[in-house]
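Retro notes, structure queue

What went well: the backlog is down to a handful. What didn't: a couple of records were mislabeled last round, so from now on we paste the full input next to the output in the thread. Example, using 4-hydroxybenzoate 3-monooxygenase from Streptomyces tunisiensis:
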Amino acid sequence: MTETPASSNSRPPQRFPVVVVGAGPAGLTVGCVLRAAGVDCLVLETGTRESVEQRPRAGVIEEPVVRGLERRGLAGNLLERARRDTACEFRFDGERHPFGYHELTGGHHWVYPQQFLVTDLVREYADVRGGAVRFGVRDVRVHDLDGDRPSVSYLCPESGHRKVVGCDFVAGCDGARGVTRVAVAGRARVARHDYGIGWLALLAQAPPSADRVLFGCHPDGFAGQMPRSPEVTRYYLQCPPGDDPESWPHERVWAELHRRLAAAGAEPLTEGALIEKRVLDMHDYVTEPMAFGRLYLAGDAAHLVAPIAAKGLNLALHDAFALGDALVERLLRGDEAGLAGYSESRLRQVWDYQEFSQWLSELYHGGATGDPFRAGTALARLRRLFSSPATAAAFAERYLGTAARY
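Corresponding output:
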């Protein structure tokens, strides 16, 4: 249920064609697409600009997403600064198994930390394209989403007054715990899957031990290395869900990383200070539909895919491209086809990526379940990946996000 915007200290409402709730990658990209077309919009964000620009999150970006950013004039720094990954490496049975996906597909991944991309998008939206944005707002509410005069209200951080903003459409890009997802909680169907595992997410002040992503499929649990820069490396360690990060001191972390990523002929890991340590419980959800009246959800407000396959940021940006373009078509040319088909078309890719995440999870974690049958089938999948050219090519396309168009 959405509310009627009533408050004793509310002011006469402002009006924008679109209000975007959330200044993450999806919200800022929608805003940039609108401003490039000359459409006014307002972005509302509860965090400060500094906090938004510094949140460390994902860093692996698919080539189709980079090309989408490039077409919209949003990839300048990324193309100049990002590292291109052309191969990864699986480690199992004590051996190294390099996987050159560029050789199979001609494609590659781009490694560009999400906070760098968000910093670029904030600058482009607010400083270059002149988009309106309010950081540090409180108690955001959405109103009258099913009518033709929706609005969004918020408490102004300076005055404490509730301000009301009228609009034609609301883009809900405020994440898993945001107000837009809460607003449709009683109307949406939410499908959820829990993997029953956790990942200890680590950021180490240490150079990577290899110039590629490493996937350690070990009987004691998965381990992963994701290079972020010459001086900083992202690591993951499988752990129980809800585990306490403080139960993983420096010595235990590095001992497990050394053990689970060990392989014949591999360079030893270079240890360093752990500058981030948190436990992620692996789960997915999908909210259906992704449109409710004049509200359109994008990114984690609509769906969450566990970081197992590095798809979350990519899905969010695909959503933003589709939603931004559809809003421009509706507002400037009166063409409603894009908005009418937004939810159905986006959900096709969302479910495809969710299925791949499940498949890959069994590859990573099946051997550590204690179930001999699952361990055997996980090992069979790994061996097939390196013995069947057709399997390798299919995996490479899905891993790179180039298998299909949606």
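Agreed that this is the format going forward. Reviewer comment attached to the example: Residues 6-12 have pLDDT under 50 and may be disordered.
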